[in-house]
Amino acid sequence: GAVVSQHPSWVICKSGTSVKIECRSLDFQATTMFWYRQFPKQSLMLMATSNEGSKATYEQGVEKDKFLINHASLTLSTLTVTSAHPEDSSFYICSARDRTRGAYEQYFGPGTRLTVT
Amino acid sequence: AQSVSQHNHHVILSEAASLELGCNYSYGGTVNLFWYVQYPGQHLQLLLKYFSGDPLVKGIKGFEAEFIKSKFSFNLRKPSVQWSDTAEYFCAVNAVNNAGNMLTFGGGTRLMVKP
């Protein structure tokens, strides 16, 4: 149980275009989802916390107008990278919290590798 | 704000060697502690976690970790590693009083086990 999926698993886009990444909790309801960014050989850095039905909370230094997050249902959150640039190339990982399993454990998706050319 | 340090960035071991990966955190309050593993090309998986109780916690695949509150540490151990343990290991901390319940990750330790 507690499976999180992401789509697509990898995407290549041209500079200036927008890319949407989906994060789904497959077998549980997730009131809270988290979006992370992982640069090569580095750790995960939290970008934002997404709560179902409300606006996302962004970490300091993360541009909310560039990284649009929508958490429209208890099983789906989306991250849209708008007007992508090569420096946005990274590995984006989402996680979800199962509210029935306690408040502190997160389940991670497989990640989406974004390459902006 | 809490922070997490993993002092070993790269570790190379031979099969059957013992493993200990260091993890220290800075936060004065109550914490929940996690170790995650990321195998090559795969997503993060939970190895073990500590919320309360016995400070020595056992996880999957023979891993264990000990929470030493006085040292703000949560080191990961395995008595005998296997080639299949080659992966990156991340320590993570969640401050219990953090309203957002967000995880703070350490920088990761890349383990390579030679067959």
Write the layout of secondary structure elements.
The complex is a heterodimer of chains A (117) and B (115).
Chain A: E1 4-7, E2 10-13, E3 19-25, E4 30-38, E5 44-51, E6 57-58, E7 67-73, E8 76-81, E9 90-98, E10 106-108, E11 112-116
Parallel strand pairs in A: 2-11
Antiparallel strand pairs in A: 1-3, 3-8, 4-5, 4-9, 5-6, 7-8, 9-10, 9-11
Chain B: E1 3-5, E2 10-14, E3 19-21, E4 24-26, E5 31-38, E6 45-50, E7 56-58, E8 64-68, E9 73-78, E10 87-95, E11 104-105, E12 109-114
Parallel strand pairs in B: 2-12
Antiparallel strand pairs in B: 1-4, 3-9, 5-6, 5-10, 7-8, 8-9, 10-11, 10-12
What is this entry, summarized?
By secondary structure, chain A is mainly beta.
Query: Given the C-alpha coordinates, what overall shape of chain B results?
Result: globular
C-alpha-based Rg of chain B, rounded: 14 Å
Secondary-structure-based class of chain B equals mainly beta
Number of separate strands of chain B: 12
Order of helices and strands of chain A: EEEEEEEEEEE
Please mark out the parts of chain B with pLDDT under 50 across 5 or more consecutive residues, or reply none: none
- Mean pLDDT rating of chain B: 91
Largest sheet of chain A: 7 strands, mixed
Mean pLDDT score of chain A, rounded? 90
Which value, in Å, is the CA radius of gyration of chain A? 13 Å
Give the distance, in angstroms, between the N- and C-terminal Cα atoms of chain B.
41 Å
Order of helix and strand elements from N to C terminus of chain B: EEEEEEEEEEEE
Beta-strand share of residues of chain B: over 45%
Q: Termini distance of chain A?
A: 37 Å
Classify the helix fraction of chain A into a percent range: under 10%
Identify the quaternary structure here. heterodimer
